[in-house]
Every structure is written in C-alpha cells, then in structure tokens.
C-alpha cells in the first residue's frame, strides 16, 4: 500500500452505505484517541442535551487532537460516535453531521447508548487515525 496513509475499501458484495467498510493504515504510526467529549476550553459542557451541537463540538475537538498527533480528518481510519438516545431520527441527524464533516467518510458507526460521563453530555467520539509521517 503506497501513497495515502489510509486506504478505504468497499466490500463489493455489501450495500454501499456511503462510507468505507474497512480502512487499512499504512505502516507507521497509528493514532488512537481517547473519548472526545463536547467540552469548551474551560472544561464546560457545550449545550447540555443538544446532540447536534455536541456532535459539532466533538468533531472540532477531534480535529485539534488529530493535529496535535500529526494527523487530520483525512487520515481517520475508524470513527465511533456515541449518542445518548433511543431515537433513530437523532442518530440519523448525527450521522449526517459526521458524514458532512469528512471529505471522505471513514469506516464509522453512530451508536445509541444509555449514559455518558458528564451530566447533560449526549455525544462522545473516538477515532483511530494514521499519523502523517
């Protein structure tokens, strides 16, 4: 595998959902993020209970974390988004924000969960990415 640090592939026998089914990271440094919470620079939760605003803040914070590691949105190989909801509509709205944020959406999933660490927190993201070498 030469060229880009992440190669995204579709399995030809599976439904094309608009995202890669698998990402292969070139040899070198792999970046694993911690869970990224929707906190501002002062550690305050952004818009408690607002899944869409919190998704945007988590993605902004993810970009900062990736940059610090020598990576970027284009090098994300795998993304997991946790949302406190049992609503398919909310999960779909969060997915659209995630999908729009990436030029090429990586292998990703948006999961409904019961609770996250901070009171009022309804979104958290974590990613695996390739560092630019």
UniProtKB/TrEMBL annotation:
Entry-linked InterPro entries: RutC-like_sf (IPR035959), YjgF/YER057c/UK114 (IPR006175)
Pfam families registered for this protein in UniProt: Ribonuc_L-PSP
Gene3D superfamilies registered for this protein in UniProt: RutC-like
Top-level taxon in the UniProt lineage: Bacteria
UniProt protein name: RidA family protein
């Amino acid at each position: 595998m030469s060229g880009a640090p992440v190669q995204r592939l579709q399995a030809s026998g599976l439904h094309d959902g608009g995202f890669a089914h698998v990402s292969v990271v070139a040899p070198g440094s792999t970046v694993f993020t911690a869970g990224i919470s929707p906190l501002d620079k002062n550690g305050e939760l952004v818009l408690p209970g607002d899944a869409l605003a919190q998704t945007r803040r988590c993605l902004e914070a993810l970009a900062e974390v990736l940059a610090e590691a020598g990576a970027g949105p284009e090098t994300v190989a795998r993304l997991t988004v946790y949302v406190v909801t049992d609503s398919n509509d909310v999960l779909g709205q969060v997915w659209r924000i995630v999908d729009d944020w990436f030029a090429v959406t990586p292998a990703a999933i948006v999961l409904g969960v019961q609770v996250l660490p901070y009171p009022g927190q309804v979104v958290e993201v974590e990613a695996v990415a390739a560092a630019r070498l």
